[in-house]
Design goal:
The complex is a heterodimer of chains A (118) and B (108).
Chain A (H helix, E strand, L loop, with lengths): L2 E5 L2 E3 L5 E8 L8 E6 L5 E7 L6 E3 L7 E6 L4 E6 L8 E9 L3 E5 L3 E5 L2
Parallel strand pairs in A: 2-11
Antiparallel strand pairs in A: 1-3, 3-8, 4-5, 4-9, 5-6, 7-8, 9-10, 9-11
Chain B lengths: L8 E4 L5 E6 L9 E5 L6 E4 L13 E6 L2 E6 L8 E9 L4 E4 L3 E5 L1
Parallel strand pairs in B: 1-9
Antiparallel strand pairs in B: 2-6, 3-4, 3-7, 5-6, 7-8, 7-9
């Protein structure tokens, strides 16, 4: 069964750092680009970042560029996002998602909540 | 940056057809993808590349795209189709993945 399982969310103070992880199973992880998508509870979806299957290319939304770093460890089938200089507006559910043909998100994790508050 | 516009809400009676639109500049030249999200759950891909369905998605879900509008059509709507629906494209000019604001489908 194809599965994505996020972890690492929690309560963090403004200006702090947090690293989220996403463990993948049931597919050849290194063959697919992976992404992070976030959602403020009750609001819409916002794409955050994408990394290529080999890890050599990454893309970021303007709202997180320079503060977030996406990475992956294909030997561990795990996707990461390092979030620095966190702001209140980064508060959201963070989903990891597998990319189909580099354009559509065909598999999603259950999400992990990040709350940035003092 | 590329913008996708969806109506905030659509209402339909059971058994009828729901049409959810997604507007964008020359969206017909892009591949459009649609997601269903029920409360408390992660989104689910229901249509990709304008009109293809992933395995397990009922044939009642279909999509089309032309000009400045893409449409998700849900035929023979059921109570279980009540959810938020999001359109999405990949904007090649910016290498950004873009979502519409979402449409809440209410089954009357």
């Amino acid at each position: 069964e194809v599965q994505l399982l996020e972890s690492g969310g929690g309560l963090i103070q403004p200006g702090g750092s947090l690293r989220l992880s996403c463990a993948a199973s049931g597919f050849t992880f290194s063959s697919y680009a992976m992404s992070w998508v976030r959602q403020v509870p009750g609001k819409g979806l916002e794409w955050v970042s994408t990394i290529s299957g080999g890890g050599g290319t990454s893309y970021y939304a303007d709202s997180v560029k320079g503060r977030f770093t996406i990475s992956r460890d294909n030997s561990k089938n795990t996707l990461y996002v390092q979030m620095n200089s966190l702001r209140a507006e980064d508060t959201a559910i963070y989903y990891c998602a597998k990319l189909l043909l580099m354009v559509a998100f065909d598999i999603w994790g259950q999400g992990t909540m990040v709350t940035v508050s003092s | 940056s590329y913008v996708l516009t969806q109506p905030p809400s659509v209402s339909v009676a059971p058994g009828q057809t729901a049409r959810i639109t997604c507007g964008g500049n020359n969206i017909g030249s892009k591949s459009v993808h649609w997601y269903q999200q029920k409360p408390g759950q992660a989104p689910v891909l229901v249509v990709y590349d304008d009109s293809d369905r992933p395995s397990g998605i009922p044939e009642r879900f279909s999509g089309s795209s032309s000009g400045n509008t893409a449409t998700l059509t849900i035929s023979r709507v059921e109570a279980g189709d009540e959810a938020d629906y999001y359109c999405q494209v990949w904007d090649s000019s910016s290498d950004h993945w873009v979502f519409g604001g979402g449409t809440k489908l209410t089954v009357l």
